[in-house]
Amino acid sequence: MAVSKRQNTLQDKIVHSLEEKKMLIPVAFLAVLLIDIVIFYGTLLSPQSFCFGLVGIGILTPYGLILFRITNPKKLLILVTVLFLILAPLFTVMSVENVYSNEPVLYSSDSTLKQGTVDPYIGNGENSSFDFTVLISSKYLEKENTSFNVYLNITDMNGKKSQYNMSLIKNGTYLEYQKTLDLDKGVYTFFFALKSKNATATSWKNTTLYDGVLNGVLNVEKGDFIIASLPMMYMATFMYFGFLSYIIVGMYWWTRIAKERKRRMVTVKKEEGSSGGLKCPVCGNPISEGTETCPYCGAELEHEEDEEEHGSSHEEQVGEDEAEE
Ligand SMILES: [Zn+2]
After folding, report:
1. What residues have their beta carbon closer than 5 A to ion ligand 1?
2. Cα(297) to centroid of ligand 1, in Å?
3. Is the pLDDT reported for residue 2 higher than 50?
4. pTM of the model
5. CATH topology of domain 106-211
6. Most exposed of 49, 50, 233, 306 (fewest Cβ within 10 Å)?
7. Where are the domains positioned within the chain?
8. What is the rounded average pLDDT for all residues in the chain?
């Protein structure tokens, strides 16, 4: 019977490949992470490196624990969970500290708009005044010979967007535009926009962030911001770290169960001379062909394959004849 082969396919292959390439995944990952930090982002705290780093921790943690001979799947689950619970608030504090220490300076991609800033960057957490300023190259405007407006665009924490006209406060090589706003407690993101019009078209230029980590106004106490960011950071940490760790621990658990099962498996033999019925080798009760678990004693069963060299079908026939006499 080909029944026994069914249990040795996918699960066994995965177990085998995991054992063969135990170190390949973490080593490859570390290498990529290093390249990522050194070449592309320069710092572990950039959002991309941060997410990538989390993915790395998610993969390396269970691997590391297993390599250090913590092989009990339940223990692994607990350790991974504890790490996840500690990491999320740690990352929240780190990222909030980073946001509070990086004042944003905004530019448009072609530098028509530059030095877009807000003063103060961090408010006192109550209704306070903020001066938004941006510079425009007058050379650009002479060249284009257009009429134009400058806007401040601001989005609050609930996603509500507002747009304000800015006023010219200084003329020169650069035109300085300003808008003073009273803002309630909260975190606001902002950018500046230049809308220019000539005879044929209207075009917009927007600033983006070239510096810092958040083009925002922080009119909120640091502690409040940490608490407010915690749920999101838990989600991000789970998405990048927790989820992967659990998958790896789950797969490890699964392969261990597969191995354990294989080890416990009892081979069902087609006994010569019997009248065709199979018996459980453990409890002796009759079972049908292809049964994987004995319904009487729960033994894991592996079925012996038909082997032609025994000439079993012929012998069985003879045995049956003898039994009839
Ligand atoms: Zn049995």
Report:
1. 280, 282-283, 294, 296-297, 299
2. 4
3. no
4. 0.59
5. Immunoglobulin-like (2.60.40)
6. 306
7. 3-101+228-261, 106-211, 265-324
8. 77
